Automatic annotation (TrEMBL):
Domain of life, per lineage: Bacteria
Classification via Pfam families: AP_endonuc_2
UniProt source species: Paracoccus methylarcula
Name the record gives this protein: Sugar phosphate isomerase/epimerase
Gene3D superfamilies xrefs: Divalent-metal-dependent TIM barrel enzymes (3.20.20.150)
GO MF entries: isomerase activity
Amino acid sequence: MPVLSYQLYSSRNFAGLEQTCAMLAQHGYEAVEPFGGLFDDPDTLLRAVEVNGLRAPSAHINLTDLESDPARFVDLAARLGIRTYYVPFVQPDQRPKDAAGWREFGARLSRAGAPLRAAGLGFGWHNHDFEFKAEADGSVPMQAILEGGPDIEWEADIAWIARGGADPFEWLERHAQRITAAHVKDIAPEGEKLDEDGWADPGTGTLDWAALYKALANTRAEIFVMEHDNPSDDARFAKAGVALHARLGA
């Protein structure tokens, strides 16, 4: 069964890190996925993870932070047990506008990840929706990124693929060997959960997670990360994620 993890960004508006990790351990999570800001205080992060019997096999980091000090992230990986880093975002004003630009962005990712790969770590990209919206030249950014960086991995965020207007099943099949982790989140029916930005707890929304788990079984994804971008109750969401994974992840 894939490792059951939790993107700590989901709980950024709730109790402190140590309380969040305690809650996750109580619900049965094995792991957490830290994000950039938490690395400003690695001692607190390490304590919260270890005290609660969790681990952090993957993490999100900012591309410019990695480029400016890759040795820092190699060291953090050794301290925290991180095996793979993913860059999760690029600001709108920094996004290319055509296939050539996105391929160069993929090449930039590849160059940035070289010191991590040299240290035996994995490195890749985590998508949102904009990567699946065609540019004026007809190119699809996600495809160009993967072409420009043929050695980068992909943490596939399924719900963002769908929100980008693409077919998750098609992308999972096409790039099965590039996908080493997946974000498990769900989309509420149109007009519902507006106070939670239209997201739903895993297994309660519009995505066919039973079929998606089967599709993900044909990829290299070893970590399934529960995520909700704006839950009104993170404990409720965390519990739903465990239930879905227990039902489908075997």
